């Protein structure tokens, strides 16, 4: 049997959650667990009701996205983890493409590209992510972290044991907990493999945290980069010849 992939959907008062859940249930990959972690929502909960027979739904006290993801990682039954924000959507072949690649290449982590969609699900910017060489791109990915964050967290699929090696999401970063984790993965020798396909639709809208909390996000990014980039530079100098 193919390995099970758990799709963790952190949820907090989000009207778009039915679209996210349906896109997870519509995956062509046959061995899927859809785990919705309600982070203490006070509204929009009724939108999950029609899906309860097809998903695993758990509720916890509000603590932020990182805590919801970490709880999902702790209780999930999958050997691999994917993360889907409750306002985004997976394309139907998303998990299949990444699992085919990862199993064939013995990869622990893969990520992909994405289109930007608006509040009405319409694509308005295509191929938003940085693109890398289609093969043997692990070194390029490492190098890119010297100047930017090239990884959209919802494009990730990771083996569950990666979180034992690199740790889980840091709740101290409310909006950039994924960026912090990518550095820890890289510095623990976990290569992040890029797949040059668009596999998710990432939503941009006025109610999103990305839109509403830019000053806090910029502060978190600065804190992460000032800490990790000198360490990454030393790591790359030491392992300059890795493939």
Explain this structure to me?
The chain is of the alpha/beta class. It has one domain (5-238): Spore Coat Polysaccharide Biosynthesis Protein SpsA, Chain A (Alpha-Beta Complex), CATH 3.90.550.10. 35% of the residues lie in helices and 21% in strands. The chain contains eight helices and nine strands. It has helices at residues 17-25, 65-75, 94-105, 138-144, 162-166, 177-187, 209-212, 214-238; strands spanning 5-11, 32-38, 56-59, 80-83, 89-90, 109-117, 123-125, 157-159, 192-203. Strand 1 (5-11), helix 1 and strand 2 (32-38) form a beta-alpha-beta unit. The radius of gyration is 17 Å and the shape is globular. 40% of the residues are buried. The model has no long low-confidence stretch (mean pLDDT 94). This is Glycosyl transferase. It holds the Pfam family Glycos_transf_2. Residues 6-122 form the Glycosyltransferase 2-like domain.
Question: How do the strands and helices of this protein lay out in sequence?
Answer:
Elements: E1 5-11, H1 17-25, E2 32-38, E3 56-59, H2 65-75, E4 80-83, E5 89-90, H3 94-105, E6 109-117, E7 123-125, H4 138-144, E8 157-159, H5 162-166, H6 177-187, E9 192-203, H7 209-212, H8 214-238
Parallel strand pairs: 1-2, 1-4, 2-3, 6-9
Antiparallel strand pairs: 4-8, 5-9, 6-7, 6-8
Helix pairs in contact: 6-8
CATH A-level architecture: Alpha-Beta Complex
Q: How big a fraction of the residues is strand?
A: 15-25%
* Radius of gyration (Å): 17 Å
| Number of helical elements | 8
Overall 3D form: globular
CATH class term: Alpha Beta
Count structural domains.
Answer: 1
Structural class: alpha/beta
Beta strands, count: 9
Main sheet properties: 9 strands, mixed
Mean pLDDT score: 94
* Low-confidence regions: none
Report how far apart the termini are.
31 Å
Order of helices and strands: EHEEHEEHEEHEHHEHH
CATH topology: Spore Coat Polysaccharide Biosynthesis Protein SpsA, Chain A
Q: What share of the residues lie within helices?
A: 25-40%
By CATH's scheme, which homologous superfamily applies?
Spore Coat Polysaccharide Biosynthesis Protein SpsA, Chain A
């Amino acid at each position: 049997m193919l390995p099970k992939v758990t799709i963790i959907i952190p949820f907090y008062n989000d009207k778009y959650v039915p679209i996210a859940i349906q896109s997870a249930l519509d995956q062509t990959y046959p061995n899927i667990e859809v785990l919705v972690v309600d982070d203490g929502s006070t509204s929009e909960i009724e939108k999950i009701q029609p899906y309860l027979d097809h998903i695993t739904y758990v509720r916890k006290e509000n603590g932020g996205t990182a805590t919801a993801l970490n709880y999902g990682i702790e209780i999930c039954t999958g050997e691999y983890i994917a993360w889907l924000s409750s306002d985004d959507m997976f394309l139907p072949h998303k998990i299949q493409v990444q699992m085919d690649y990862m199993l064939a290449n013995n990869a622990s982590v893969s990520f992909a590209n994405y289109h930007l969609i608006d509040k009405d699900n319409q694509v308005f910017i295509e191929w938003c992510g940085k693109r890398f060489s289609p093969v043997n791109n692990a070194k390029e990915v490492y190098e890119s972290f010297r100047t930017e964050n090239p990884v959209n967290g919802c494009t990730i699929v990771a083996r569950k044991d990666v979180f034992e090696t690199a740790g889980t999401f840091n709740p101290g970063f409310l909006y950039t907990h994924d960026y912090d984790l990518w550095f820890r993965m890289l510095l623990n020798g976990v290569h992040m493999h890029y797949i040059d396909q668009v596999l998710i639709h990432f939503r941009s809208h006025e109610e999103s945290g990305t839109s509403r909390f830019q000053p806090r996000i910029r502060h978190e990014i600065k804190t992460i980069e000032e800490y990790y980039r000198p360490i990454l530079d030393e790591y790359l100098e030491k392992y300059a010849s890795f493939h």
